[in-house]
Amino acid sequence: MSKRKLKKFRWLNWGTVFFFLCSWAAAYLISGQPLVKDSVFIDVPLIPQEAIFVASISTDSKQWQQLQQWGTPEIQAALKRRLTRLSKSLLGSKSESYQNLIKPFIGKEVTLAYLHSNLAQSTSPTPSVTEYSPKNSSKQKSLVLLLPLKNQLLAKQLWTQLNSQLKSKFGEKSYKKIKIKQIKNNNYCISLIGRFIVVSTDFSSMKRVIDTHQDSASSVITPRAEKALANISKTTDQNLAKFYLNIPAALEFATTLSSRVILPESIQQQTKQGIAGKVLLESEGLRIQGILWHKLNNSDSQNLTLAKNLPTENSVKNMAQNLPIETQFMFAGGNIKQLWQDFVAESESNPLIPIEFQPVILTNWIKSTTNLDWEQDFLPWMGDQISLALIPTKEEIFTLGKNHHNQLEGALVVMLQISDRDHGEQIWMQLDQTVATKHNFQVESFHQSAQPIFKWTSPGKKANFAYGWLEEDLLFFTLGSSIVPSLIEKPKQNLNGNELYQQTILTRLNPNQMQIFLDLDSPMRENIELLPFSPKQKMFLKAINTIGFTTAITDEITTSFKIVIQPKTIKDKRIKDKI
Q1: pLDDT tens across 12-59, in order?
Q2: Which helix or strand (DSSP H or E) is residue 291 part of?
């Protein structure tokens, strides 16, 4: 139990964060619902503290017009369909009511919040996240939209006009002396609360908003996190959006969607509290900046102990210098032993990790394949850095699995910083014997620029692997041996010189904790179908040219991150290519 309580920051969470934010961006493009007031970071006095996700979004039409120039025809068509459905749901045939009635009155930002259905149905003033019970929860989530009006007088004026024009569409209820309009033959509700017009997807969530309004319990971001976000908020750039993710609530909701059984105490014992940040619209794409922070209560000695055990060192330095400039994908992470420990701990509380990727499944597979134990034979000699890269090559196309259409174009390269080379070499000698005797691979050695290289070739020559040493403490392992010469002889132009890498990765933050670089405006597009994503997620990826993701530990409980997304444009001829 103590190991779970002393969880350190987990690399997998950044993978989750990365794909969550990308999915959020996709959700915007596909759903047409811009996802987070003019005060502190996010502070709307109607949003319950236990909201899963909150976003305040700019109403500046110029920004949205610019955003509509990006993507692909498929993305834009999906956006138009969703906007049309949303408009008909709320306003029926009178969709012009938004332009004529609502738009002139609303403020600079509107706010969107997702509530878990079991929280939305609660009428208690301050339900606790820790009271969550998967057995009693629904897989539904409730949506609340808040339109802040410019002043109270305008709010009442608009409310009167809406009642007049849309009277035939609404029934009327009341809760705690506040009138609620409910769309006939639909669960959508609308109410005027203070200077906000509130739209909810059901009556229960509207009641929850009213409870929060009257009980004044709505600060979704803690004071400590607000302080950490101060530097982000000081910039003069106009935000497209600001967002907040409640990690405990999000994990609990994800549990209802997962086939895995996650114990409630496992979620309660994880230390991460939230993720918050802002989205900026730039000339070439979107920039997302934010922080992740851990729980810390100064009156709680246990949480202070947890904070002291969080890592405070950025160990990723410059793995990109070892990769050629044409590299299409790179992941670079820190201490390998720590990554594994964090992954093991994370698997207990994160329902997003599939069963087939559970630590015990992976370690058993390694044992059965290599006759070696992952934790006892591999981890002890591994060091502080690891990178995984996909590099295009003309020579090698590998078929993955039995499906001949699943072809990986390029060489996969893993690089490991080693803490004990003698131990590592002993293990690789054992691996040479195992792949030869157990898997009938051909094992041979050769020299490249005076460096010994070992090559494994599978039966039928369907695949080949190679490994060797770039430096005294830097090991490489490749799927595809044709890339070896360019690695050994040091690339004349390395990834640091790639303009897209420079634009999307926070290179001045060196060292850092993690980097992910993905160039989709390349042959990498052909590999998208191999990824384990839904059709909508793949459609989103095909609308993007480049993604960059960088994280760095800020202090004992916070980690900063930056994501840069460079999308395709509607005018870009490249979108007509096969995608």
Answers
A1: 344 433 444 444 444 333 333 333 333 345 556 788 888 899 888 888
A2: strand 285-294
Cα pseudo-dihedral 175, 177, 178, 182, rounded to 10:
50
Question: How many other β-carbons are positioned within 10 Å of the β-carbon of residue 573?
Answer: 8
CB-count burial class (<10 Å; 0-12, 13-18, 19+) for 47: buried
DSSP-assigned states of every residue in 114-179: EEEHHHHT--SSS--GGG--GGG--S-EEEEEEEEBS-HHHHHHHHHHHHHHSGGGEEEEEETTEE
* H or E segment and range at residue 212: helix 203-215
The answer to whether residues 228 and 278 touch, using CB atoms and an 8 Å cutoff, is: no
Q: Rounded to whole angstroms, how far apart are CA atoms 227 and 224?
A: 5
With residue 339 as reference, give the H or E element that holds it: helix 336-347
pLDDT digits (tens, 9 = 90+) for 418-440: 999 999 999 999 999 999 999 99
The residues facing 145 across adjacent strands are: 112, 199
C-alpha to C-alpha distance for 46 and 76, rounded to whole angstroms: 32
**Cα–Cα distance measured from residue 558 to residue 201, given in angstroms and rounded to the nearest whole number:** 34
Number of Cβ atoms within 10 Å of the Cβ of 107: 15
How many whole angstroms separate alpha carbon 229 and alpha carbon 248?
Answer: 20
What are phi and psi for residue 208, nearest 5 degrees? -65, -40
What is the rounded distance in angstroms from the CA atom of residue 213 to the CA atom of residue 236? 31
Q: What is the pLDDT of residues 268-317, one digit of tens each?
A: 778 888 898 999 888 888 899 998 888 865 444 344 444 444 555 556 67
Could you tell me which residues come within 8 angstroms of residue 9 by beta carbon, excluding any fewer than 6 positions away? 272, 292, 294, 310, 311, 342, 513, 553, 559
Cβ-in-10-Å burial (0-12, 13-18, 19+) of 3 comes to: exposed
**Could you give the CA distance from residue 249 to residue 119 in angstroms, rounded to a whole number?**
10
Which DSSP symbol is given to 322?
G
CB atoms within 10 A of CB 314: 18
Helices (H), ranges, 348-498:
359-370, 421-437, 484-488
Average model confidence (pLDDT) across the chain: 75
Overall average pLDDT of the 136-149 stretch: 71
Q: How far apart are CA 361 and CA 365, in angstroms?
A: 6
Whole-number pLDDT of residue 195: 80
